[in-house]
Design goal:
The chain is mostly beta strands. The chain has no helices and eleven strands. The strands form two sheets. Strands 2, 4, 5, 6, 9, 10 and 11 form a seven-stranded mixed beta sheet that branches. It has a four-stranded antiparallel beta sheet with strand order 1-3-8-7, with no helix packed on it.
């Protein structure tokens, strides 16, 4: 079992920045991927970015490429999502997720462990 705890959400004006954090605890040493997903009201949950904890790269949704950066705190089961140039369309609940398996795609169904979510609201 892995427990994920997010922090860092909030309200910001368009063009602003926020950084989300996610700390994994429990049986977290076997995590292969950690990622961020988001869900806006009335919409499906969508992948934002994920990171291979073995150091083999990152994946981003096209909608956030060049604006968002996922990273890991050195040697720790902590990941960040730096979000720059935020837009109103980025408004959503953001969830941290983790999986033990090797899944190169940003698919919510591949992730077994989920945090409670942190709200990001961007005003235009």
């Amino acid at each position: 079992e892995v427990v994920l705890m997010e922090s860092g959400g909030g309200s910001v004006q368009g063009g602003g920045s926020l950084r989300l954090s996610c700390v994994a605890s429990g049986y977290s040493d076997s995590i292969r991927f950690m990622g961020w997903f988001r869900q806006a009201p009335g919409k499906e949950r969508e992948g934002v970015a994920h990171l291979d904890m073995y150091g083999h790269g990152t994946t981003y949704a096209d909608s956030v490429k060049g604006r968002f950066t996922i990273s890991r705190k050195n040697g720790q089961n902590v990941v960040y999502l730096q979000m720059n140039n935020l837009k109103a369309d980025d408004t959503a609940m953001y969830y941290c997720a983790a999986t033990y398996g090797y899944y190169s795609r940003l698919r919510a169904t591949d992730f077994a462990f989920w945090g409670q979510g942190t709200q990001v609201t961007v005003s235009s």
